[in-house]
Amino acid sequence: MSVADETSQPPAPLCWCCGNQFEEHDLLRLGSHPEAAVCFNCARFLHRRAVGQEDQRRTTLAGRIRTGITGVREWIIAHNWHRLPLLGSLLQRLDRHLP
Ligand SMILES: [Zn+2]
User: Fold this and answer.
1) What is the top-level taxon of the source organism (predicted)?
2) Domain ranges in the chain?
3) Residue 3: is its pLDDT beyond 90?
């Protein structure tokens, strides 16, 4: 084994959803499959998708509100408002607190 092999670090782990590299402390490991990990943003995205599919199966007031918020979110993304310099960062910060 060469000196380079002993000092080289293993590559940073990848998110299995978006494929980006992250530090281990920025990833969530799956319970039964600890080899699979997702980043916090993808975990939030997957949670929203799961709740959205559940809302489609059962109609509730909370589900209707979430569906409305999702519609507004999709409209903002379609119009690239989330990329605007000041408004975009405000919208992204607000989105972290929305269901
Ligand atoms: Zn990810």
Assistant:
1) Bacteria
2) 24-95
3) no
